[in-house]
Fold this sequence. Notes:
Blueprint: H1 4-38, H2 42-70, H3 72-91, H4 96-121, H5 130-158, H6 162-166, H7 169-174, H8 176-182, H9 196-215, H10 221-244, H11 258-287, H12 293-320, H13 323-340, H14 350-376, H15 381-423, H16 432-439, H17 443-447, H18 459-505
Helix pairs in contact: 1-4, 1-5, 2-3, 2-4, 2-9, 2-15, 3-4, 4-15, 5-12, 5-14, 9-10, 11-14, 11-15, 11-18, 12-14, 13-14, 13-18, 15-18, 16-18
Amino acid sequence: MLARSQLVPIAIAAGATFPMVLSSTAISVALPAISAELGLTSGEMQGIAALFFLTSSISMLTAKTLVSRYGIRATFIFSVLVFSLGIVIACASANFAVLAVGRALQGVGTGVIQTLGILIISPLFPVSRRGFAMGLFGTCILLAPAIGPAYAGYLLEFFNWRALFYSMLPVMLTVLPPLSRALSADISSARERFDWLGLLVIALSLSAFLTASIQSTGGEPELARLCYLGSAILLALFVWIEFDVASPLIELQSLRQVDYSGSLVVIFVLGAVLFAMTFLLPQFLDHVARMDPVSIGYIMLPGGLAMAFASPLCGYLSDRYSSTLLLALGLALLAFSCWLLTGLQLGMDPMTLIMWVIVGRMALSLIFPCIYKISLYRFSGATLAQASALVNFTRQIGGGLGLALAGSYFHYRDGAWLNAMHDTGATGAEGWDEARDLLGLSIDSAAGAGSLSTDGISTSLLSQLASQALTMHAYRDVFATMALCIVIAGLVFALTKVVRRLRSAAPE
């Protein structure tokens, strides 16, 4: 059983984190409605998403210094108020500039709060019980992306996109009174000098990367390559600065611990897979399967509910049994769930898809408590703040990079399938047999038309079915690549364990 002194901080941290993570995922469903009302271009919508990612990533690196200077309670209250102000501004927005300011403030609050959650919870539990605590806290982080599409779809169906933000404001303000009583106001006597140069360089690196990812999908390829190069150079400069400065944003010396470095590789890939899957699967259901937002939400919801119930149990199991073995099992299940999604079909049974989503969500509920426990168990005090910031920053960067690369790879594979279609010479009904053989497409499953034959189908309908099938195969390729990346991450983590054992066995 949890003591009140343990349960209340977990509830506060989860209550503040949940709406923040929910907004970052649910907004993707609301973007078309926002764009239609405010008259935003596709570039402006991408800019708003990029701005939120940038501000949330950068603010994660400031959490350690804020806590050191002002205490964890003042930092937490500040972050909640900043996020709440961002909600009010976003709700009142009538143009791109105001909405961008609102989302930027929400990103600042989100980044700091996600880092503070681990700092609040970890000291309350011994290492032997930390997995269960992380499982409880992880429920909100994992549940929010799962129910985000359903939540946004419901609000868009019966209200409007502004309700998506307004509904989060009461939750944020509710946590403030218990927050001020439950959290410590301790302030470190040692005032660190803030690494402004490092913050500027990493901000420029991320900005260049985000510009490149936007330009690489339908923009200017030359500019994209130039921005990718600039981002890499700035990232190398940031690493040099962090090794040289007295109070770095990221303590890179901790990367010398091979098991911690291996954990960060897994966390990076998990962030990429979680963000990409949360975005790509609803996109497939919308653009290819032609489902409405509410139906998409209903498909995603059972996986989120299963994950909510499983996460504390998986955390408890990580305290009782080997976290490494449970992590390996979770990675295997997650890779399997991505492999299942390579079997996506037009007109497939929704219950089958729901079961596939549940497998992936259950895998995530098993992975996150284990990986957080494994990566942070060696740290405490100030070093815990550093390690926690790097863990969350790695997950965030993995999510942004994974989403950008998944989008780019999807467009590449979509174009490759289209070129393969053209190479068959398939045009209209005359080329249907060739297109069907290439795509593995059947009229029965695609059109849901029983024994319909090509003689009764117009050229335009055949072209539409072929186009949907091309896009479906591109999605399949992306999910297959995601499964491969998960396997590689697991192998890298296993390799770091072997290296650590060899170092331990080596004579002094």
